[in-house]
Tetratricopeptide repeat protein (Georgfuchsia toluolica), 565 residues
Amino acid sequence: MKLKRLLLAALIAPLPMLALAVPPVLTPVAIPEAAPVQALTPQILYQVLLAEIAIGRGQLPVAAAVYADLARSTRDPRIARRASEVAYFARQPQLSLDAARIWSETDPDSVQARQAYWTLLGNMGRLDQLADALSRAVAAETGRRGEALMEVGRQLARLTDKKMAVRIADRLTAPYLVLPEAHFVRAQIAYGAEDKVRASNELDQALALKPDWEPAAILRAQLFATNLEASIDSLAAFVGKYPKARDARLAYARALIEGKRYDAARAEFAVLLQEEPDRPDLLYSMGLLSLQLGEVDKAESTLKSLLDKDFSEMDSVHYYLGQIADESDRVQEAIGHYDAITPGSQHHIQGQVRAAVLLARAGQLQQAIDRLHAAQAAAPTERINLLVIEAQFLADSGHPADAYQLLADALQKSPDDTVLLYESALLAERLDKMDVLERNLRKLIKLKPDNAHAYNALGYSLADRNQRLDEASALIDKALAMAPEDPAILDSKGWLNYRRGDLPAAAAMLQKALVLHPDPEISAHLGEVLWQMGRQGEANKIWDAALGIAPDNEVLNRTIKRFRH
């Protein structure tokens, strides 16, 4: 197999959900109202306006200094919050810390204020001060000490110095060891410090004090990070003993998904849905599990039930519904779902590419290309990938020369782009520009000496032309050493064996490749080898099966025509 066309498949395949970390943005705010004890004097108004104008002009240090002065003079928690925020973005950590301290002191009920102050202490390495602040916070919460300990534990888990975090946790929790939360915090911080033995011991003590406590059971399962089955067994035992433990059951269901035990996972989600039948995240998981199990109708109805709900992953819902409609040949419905995906979101480009594929298959080539151009404008970083897909559309529509020229022009602007080098080599081969193919692939190998498919493509092109077979063998063997189970490379090795006259070795290698990937070109090659071995009946069966899957494949049809008269 000369070249693997992986790019289009990669862009239109479903992707796992990703947690995207979005940096905070400093945005303008309305002038804060006066605090109950603080009148909005002309001087305060003037300083707020001055600071906000400075922010608008990008003069953050000036704004930070003005707001810091205001926070000290007014001790208004709203001004202190803004002062801490502005100073943080201005990279004035001391001013930010001072303002956060005022904020937390003047708004003692604000969890956000406390966490901001504690986080800044930790970031600045003021660990003794942090420990004192956390100790005071826990001691003050006489009515909700367990909750306070858990809040403190979350804060300590953010510290980069894990050994120091353990010491602070031990000090903080020492007076409260009759509470399960104290042992949980110790376990949580020990786990972060990679002391799983101590974490396990502390969790045992937490569960001895509160046997049905779900957070401890879930964390204990996480200790088996390198042993998924042990984690699953731990959660299964807990859920079996405490069947109403919903959070633990949800963790159990997700662990079953990770272990690819989809039927069992769906059963657990069904139990969860009995109590919360309209909960969006549970419905979403059920829909994807049904899709994974091949129950497309059930998946579609479940996912469609989310369309009238407030669900944060609605773009993913539209993407998967688009795929279902796509594979059911409901073209306009599929495109409608793809167009409903928010521009700039995770699945937007994949959805637009899939919509373009549908249009190209329907013969609407220009509409498909227009869609790719619009996607490129929305996501400039995907320019090369989208250009390659446009070239594939042109080539598949009978315009290989136009496709080659499109990539050749792009390669002039980006001569070292490995994707363009590889894909233009594919098109050069179709146009019998073998000098271009070899030049591009050799340059690609030089740029990326670990690219197995570049070696394979060059080796196959030589073997297919029955030229320089020793060199072809060295190239293909190098590719095979990098990717020993890759069906495209196994196909190339089989074809090389065929060119050298070793038919049994060729048949064995091609059969292995076909088992790994039922591709029409591999079927064409294997059928030809079997035919030459006198096994025409087997060859015909393989060709007929391949024709049922890919009746228009050029290589397959050309091969069959040569042998069937």
